[in-house]
């Protein structure tokens, strides 16, 4: 009795679902304008798929549960019953070997009206994959749990992922270790010279501390495998120090612009204003990166699949640090914005400096500072610009390697990571007045006596000038 009922059911469903064998019409336009196109059915007619990609007889032939979407990813009235089904895709051994059940990927699956399959991995950069007709099949699945709902399955061959940058731990640690060495050397030399502990020198020191923390933590991260929680902690440390270094670069550009602006407007510095200004700089370059780091951790731990367009960090799912599109959005993009404002302030400062150089009458006033002070600030401006060029090149390489992976710019990135510390060492330390300070403070008695006259006069003059404007000491 039940056998005859099943036969009648098959005949009825077969009359409703369009199924074609080797010969079929690819497209047909209905009265509503919907384009009918063929879709591969995984199993032969009257069969459903099992968990191990096998087919067996089943009484479930209803395909109305498969939703069809338009180009805007809106559900349309047509269903899979309006699409031509070509059964037996799993009989293709090549397809069967490569296809996977995309239902378990945690992705949003869209069967498009034109016959292609779109897979959206929510909260990722470029999270859409388009699967052509010959690379996927659909079918009902045998419900082992005997639930009333029909299980719908999509098996597809996913496209190859983009090529990942090769990782050589020896090269990576050697390059970062070289930069750490030179940055540490800069900090030691600046710590040995109290003359450089003015507000300008402290800004440079904090910038170097940010870079040192970044490269040191990256080196430690590459030396071992880390648990998920440890990965998030290390990522937070690297993220904070990286952003902090770029925020201090912005402080440099703003500070030099503000200094030239004060000279042009003939405004003398207020007593204690340098200390207050440095405190404000510290709050800006220290607190804002901290808040961004806290936000990164919070977003990383949130389930935002209901907002698939919102990109999340995916640490440690995609790696023990920001990777790919997440790195671009959360790290490289803020660097680009900060670098843009750096150069805006440098251009404004250059106009102010040019205007100041033409006002020779103002240069002799106390408010405008001495000629020596103005010369020192011009030298400081040059140092800041050089540092910004070095750091701008870094994020430019990051952008190129991300946007154009075929160029394989990650090799340049690894090499540049090894020389960036040396470049900063050349800019900040390898200068004649730094060597004179070191020789004067730590040289032999004979050397000290030989230089005591002129150096004492210079230090005495600088002491008087620094009382008027503490930012006039050279870096």
From TrEMBL:
Record protein name field: G-protein coupled receptors family 2 profile 2 domain-containing protein
Record-linked Gene3D superfamilies: Rhodopsin 7-helix transmembrane proteins
Membrane topology: Multi-pass membrane protein
Subcellular location: Membrane
Record keyword Cell division present: no
PANTHER family noted in UniProt: G-PROTEIN COUPLED RECEPTOR MTH-RELATED (PTHR47154)
Keywords: Membrane, Signal, Transmembrane, Transmembrane helix
GO cellular component: plasma membrane
Transmembrane domains' residue ranges: 169-191, 203-226, 238-258, 278-299, 328-349, 381-397, 409-430
Chief site of localization: membrane
CDD domains registered for this protein in UniProt: 7tmB3_Methuselah-like
Lineage: Eukaryota, Metazoa, Ecdysozoa, Arthropoda, Hexapoda
Cleavable signal peptide: 1-21
Record-level GO BP terms: cell surface receptor signaling pathway
One Gene Ontology term of the molecular function aspect: G protein-coupled peptide receptor activity
Domain G-protein coupled receptors family 2 profile: residue ranges: 168-432
